[in-house]
Write a structure and sequence with these properties.
Structural class of chain A: alpha/beta
Strand order of the largest sheet of chain B: 2-1-3-4
Distance between the termini of chain B: 44 Å
Largest interface: A-B, 18 and 18 residues
Oligomer: heterodimer
Order of helices and strands of chain A: EHEHEHEHEEEHEEH
Distance between the termini of chain A: 30 Å
């Protein structure tokens, strides 16, 4: 599999991703799937600022991701796929074959505090359970050196 | 009242640490403050920086000093620059740059930003 990280992180491309994960997993490109960002050139340029050399960033709409991710999954190029929220990632796991694990980074927007970098509301918990029920492992881990923590009702027993 | 003020925006406790170090070498300052991105979404960090500037800069020109060019801190700074809230973002902040920022703040804009960044750059090296 050439997508070496599927990650939900409201900060998208930031320090934990380009330092922590990229140094470990060496992606060639980072694909951000976000309908609003795909249309926003200024925001794209802000996210591209300070990217490490040798890593490209792409900003795709969800529809484009559904069309093009299967080819990325088949290729040998190493890629990260990032979404800002669980809903977008849940849609991808439904519509793109072969997503086995979803990494969860920063989610601060409210609800129950699960970890210092993860707060989940009821909608989030439901999305995680739906992904888990379909066999997708949803694992919180902000940086590679952190202890991974499986999320969802199955993990809670 | 001087003409410029700044906010150091950085990961973890770096910004607090830099301001603390600055006060040791240059005395207490009334024109630079620290903010961390800890536990904040990008939008919340941006709002917090804007509120601090609104609250404390009192009509002075505002500058941001971020730890990295990109990352969530650099991105929030970039958005505020695009909105015109601040005059410039100086990234890769270190203590020598910050000292220069404080002491040069009466200089013209061009001389000020060039000299501050040059000072920070020239402060890097290795002794063996």
């Amino acid at each position: 599999m050439s997508v070496v990280l599927f990650r939900v992180d409201e900060r998208l491309i930031h320090g934990q991703v380009v330092v922590g994960w990229a140094r470990q997993l060496r992606p060639r490109r980072i694909i951000v799937v976000d309908d609003a960002l795909a249309e926003d050139a200024l925001e794209q340029s802000i996210y591209r600022t300070g990217m490490p050399e040798g890593i490209d960033a792409d900003f795709w709409s969800e529809a484009q991701a559904v069309r093009e991710l299967p080819a990325v999954l088949q290729s040998t190029e190493r890629a990260f796929v990032l979404t800002a929220d669980l809903a977008t990632m849940a849609h991808l796991t439904l519509r793109v074959e072969g997503i086995e694990e979803v990494n969860v980074g920063c989610i601060h927007h409210g609800g129950r505090r699960v970890l210092h970098y993860v707060r989940l509301d009821e909608g989030d918990e439901q999305l995680i359970d739906e992904m888990s029920d379909r066999g997708v492992r949803v694992v919180a881990r902000d940086v590679p050196s952190s202890t991974p923590m499986r999320l969802g009702a199955q993990a809670r027993g | 009242m001087t003409g410029r003020c700044g906010v150091v925006v950085a990961h973890g406790r770096l910004a607090d640490g830099l301001i603390s170090a600055l006060s040791r070498v240059a005395g207490e300052q009334d024109s630079v403050w620290a903010l961390s991105n800890e536990g904040l979404s990008g939008a919340d960090l941006e709002a917090k920086i804007a509120a601090l500037i609104e609250d404390r800069c009192a009509g002075r020109d505002a500058y941001l000093l971020s730890d990295m060019e990109g990352g969530s801190c650099g991105q929030a700074c970039g958005r505020l620059l695009a909105k015109g809230t601040v005059k410039a973002v100086l990234y890769g902040v270190n203590l020598p740059l910050l000292v220069e920022f404080v002491f040069l703040r009466e200089e013209s804009f061009d001389r000020f930003v060039t000299a501050a960044v040059e000072k920070g750059r020239r402060a890097l090296g290795v002794q063996v």
